[in-house]
Amino acid sequence: MAEVVVIGAGISGLTAAYLLRASGHDVVVLDQGDVPGGRMRSERSDGFLMEYGANSIMTPAPAAETLVAQLGLDPEKVTRGAAARYRYLVRDGRMRAMPLQPYRFLLCDFSSLAGRL
């Protein structure tokens, strides 16, 4: 098979490389960064889990769930507990709770009305 070069080791590049390799292609992934994942990464700090970039899958998402299973990442999945009503974002050096319910999100003052819509 022909050799394939994937430019970018973000989630899209890594997924493309995985699927190409599973189809029998020789694949090389090139990226400007030192660590794969692009803007997606997780970091534990002082007992808190910090997530950067896209970090969730709205289920059901059969293709994404199949990929996670094929990669053997099921044990790494973290599900939102019933007590986790908010996600926290930092703005102007201050941590703010972001409501998950659509109506509460529309009423919060974290961003402008245009940004919320």
Describe the overall structure.
The protein has 117 residues and is of the alpha+beta class. It has 2 domains: 1-52, no CATH class; 80-117, no CATH class. 26% of the residues lie in helices and 27% in strands. The chain contains 4 helices and 6 strands; from the N terminus they run βαβββαββαα. The strands form 3 sheets. The protein has a two-stranded parallel ribbon with strand order 1-2. The longest helix has 12 residues, at 11-22. The protein is elongated.
Major sheet summary line: 2 strands, parallel
What order do the strands of the largest sheet run in, or round the barrel if closed? 1-2
Compressed to H and E, one letter per element, the order equals EHEEEHEEHH
Q: What is the mean pLDDT?
A: 84
Q: What proportion of the residues is helical, as a percent range?
A: 25-40%
Low-confidence stretches: none
Strand percentage lies at 25-35%
Domain module tally: 2
Structural class: alpha+beta
Structure summarized in a few sentences:
This protein has 117 residues and is α+β, with helices and mostly antiparallel strands.
Task: Provide keyphrases for this structure.
26% helix; 2 domains; two-stranded parallel ribbon; 117 residues; 6 strands; two-stranded antiparallel sheet; alpha+beta; 4 helices
Summarize the helices and strands and which ones pair or pack.
Blueprint: E1 3-7, H1 11-22, E2 26-30, E3 41-45, E4 48-52, H2 62-70, E5 86-91, E6 94-99, H3 102-107, H4 113-116
Parallel strand pairs: 1-2
Antiparallel strand pairs: 3-4, 5-6
